[in-house]
Amino acid sequence: MEFRILGRLEIRSDDGEPITVSQPLIRSAISVLVLKSGQALSSDQLQALLWEPGADGDRADRTGAIKTCVAGVRRVLSPDRVPPGHGGYRLRLGDRDTVDLVTFRDLLVQAREARGRGDPPLAAELYERALALWREPPLDDLPETSAVTGIAAGLLAERRVAREELVEIRLTLGRHRALVPELRAWVLDDPLNEYLWAQLLLALYRSGRKTEALQAYDEAHEMLEQAAGSEPGPELQRMWHRIKVDDPDLTPHPAPHPVQGQDGHSAQAARPPRQPLARQLPPDVRDFTGRETQRGRLRQLLASAAVATAPPVVQISGPPGVGKTSLALHVAHLVTPSFPDGQLYVQLAGASQTPRDPAAVLNEVLRAIGVAPADIPETLAERAALYRSRLAGKRVLVVADDAAAPGQIQPLLPGTPGCAILITSRNRSLGLDGAHLLALERLSRPEGLRMLGRIIGPHRVAAEEAAAARVVEACDGFPLAMRIVGARLAGRPTWPLAHMAGLLTDPERRLDHLVAGNTAVRALIEASYQSLDERAQRAFRMLAIAGPHDFAPWVVGVLLDDPSAEELVDTLVDKSLLSTTGVDQVHQPRYRLHDLLRDYAAEQLAGDAEAEPALERLTIGWLELVDHADSLVPRDPYFPPPSRFTPRMAVSDELVKRLIEPDPAAWFTSELANLRTAVTAACAAGRFRLATGLVLRMASHLHLHHLHEEAEHLWRIVAAAAEREGDAPAAARALFRAAKVIAADRGRPAEALPLIDDCAAVFAETDSRQDLARALELRAYSVQCLGRPYDARDDAEHALQLARKVGDPHTEFAALRVLGIVCSQTDDPERAVAACEESLAIARGLGDATYQASALYSLVRVHLAAGDFSRLPALCEEGLRLTESIGHRMGKAYFHELWGQANQELGRYEQAVAHLETAAELFADLGRPDDERRARASLGELSPGIR
Question: pTM value?
Answer without folding.
Answer: 0.50
